Amino acid sequence: RKGYETVFFPYINSGVPDSAFLVFTGQEAWVASHTEALKRFFACLREGLKLVKSWQDEQWRSYTATLEGRNGDEERAVWKTILPMIDDGGGLFQHNLEEIRKLQDILCANGLLDTPYPVEEIFVNTHV
């Protein structure tokens, strides 16, 4: 966020389902000049996911106790559902363009996005 305003919008308040994914964005020039930092960041994220994967009931209870307004059992069920998508050779850090298009359609339909964009040009599976 250094030097740039970061904008977060509460998409779940506009009819967009809560989702179990993160989107990282960056300008191409910045990505090119910070490649090593990005590689380290994604390596750390992978290690963090491995750690969470090893959690037992006690660790889940401790984590979900800090999530105000969230249901611990539901959070763990979501994790178990998405785990096959991101685990060992799954789609970790890979974009599913069809799903992104569906999200874009929802955002446009709810007035959160004025213009549909060519997602295949914006969301590229590179640098990871």
Shape: globular
**Whole-number average pLDDT?**
77
Output the helix-strand order.
HHHHHH
Largest sheet: none
Strand content: under 5%
**What gyration radius follows from the Cα positions, in whole Å?**
17 Å
Which regions have little confidence, pLDDT < 50, spanning 5+ residues?
none
Helix content percent band: 40-55%
Structure class: mainly alpha
Distance between the termini: 20 Å
Number of helices: 6
Plain-language structure description:
This protein has 128 residues and is mainly alpha-helical. Helices cover 51% and strands 0% of the residues. Helix 3 (57-64) crosses helix 4 (72-86).
Essential attributes:
mainly alpha, 128 residues, globular, 0% strand
Secondary structure blueprint with pairings:
Layout: H1 28-33, H2 35-53, H3 57-64, H4 72-86, H5 97-109, H6 119-122
What is the gist of this entry?
The protein is an all-alpha fold. It has helices at 28-33, 35-53, 57-64, 72-86, 97-109, 119-122.
